[in-house]
Amino acid sequence: MKEYEEAAAIFYDSYFLGVEGDVQFYLDEARRVGSAVLELGCGTGRVLLPLAEAGVQIVGLDNSPAMLAVLRHKLARYSRETQRRVELLEGDMRFLALGRRFDLILIPYRAFLHLLTPKDQRQALLAIREHLTEGGRLIVNVFDPNLEVIAAQLGPLGSSLKRDAEFVHPRTGRRVVVWYSFQYDPEHQLAKGYFLFEELDEGGQVLTKTYSPLTLRYVYRYEMKYLLELCGYRVEALYGDFRRGPFRYGGEQIWVARRTVR
Question: Do the Cβ atoms of 240 and 249 come closer than 8 Å?
């Protein structure tokens, strides 16, 4: 089963809510450049659509057709002016070849972690660099690995299935309960697991079950710093939250890096 297929993509906006303050942070940064912005891993438009509505010209790229279909459906409800500010592309950030450059490129909310090997991560950063103007900036958000959490979920079984949240089904209006299970592979720095979405009737009986797998390759603070430098970037800032607070272990890594001249 692939990640973010049609059934799971429908639930994305109801469950994956981002990190507090991230949309406003990206909007502030986009307004600073005053030119078109590229968002990689744009998904269903959680970040992209508010930016476009606020007047930002933005190109969104994602490799999930199902997620882009949800985004296009949402975009159709916006004004024509907002729609004209948006260009959507299906593609893989490792093989980015748009033939143009941007002053600002965004990779919000863990999208960079879908690159599952160091080779993939280097390849993407090098391709992205070729799409930045001289002095253009890249902003990447990933979670900071928490060793206590990882240690508790090692081995082939990982964590037991845990109940996490509830929301209303965006199409049927029924209650949806979310469960999840993850295991960690510290040798390859992989978090592998799945989400289970159960749609319930009025009596609490399960009507449908939707499985959504997810594999991420987590990166440590100094690993990410050296990876950026290796690929031709100068780190401008590392924040621990979207209020531009200091880095804190086990929280967020929010990197602002500028393309260097080689």
Answer: no
pLDDT band of 157, cuts 50, 70, 90 = low
Count of CA atoms in the C-beta half-sphere (13 A) of 74:
23
Nearest-angstrom CA–CA distance, 82 and 78: 6
- Least confident among 28-37, 143-152, 244-253: 143-152
Q: In what order do the strands lie in the sheet with 175-185?
A: 162-168, 175-185, 190-200, 206-217
Kindly state the DSSP code that residue 111 receives in the 8-state scheme.
G
The structure's pTM equals 0.94
Task: Say if CB 156 and CB 122 are below 8 A apart.
Answer: no
Identify residue 29 by its one-letter amino acid code: E
Amino acid letter at 232? Answer: G
Tokens standing for 258? 């500028």
- Residue partners of 32: CB distance under 8 A and separation at least 6: 104
How far is residue 198's CA from residue 211's CA, in Å, rounded to a whole number?
A: 9
Q: What is the CA radius of gyration of the chain?
A: 19
- Assess contact for 38 and 136: CB atoms under 8 A: no
Structure tokens at 19: 């990190």
Q: Characterize the bridge pairing of strands 132-143 and 58-62.
A: unpaired
Whether 64 and 9 have beta carbons less than 8 Å apart is answered as yes
Q: Which two tokens stand for residue 10?
A: 């429908």
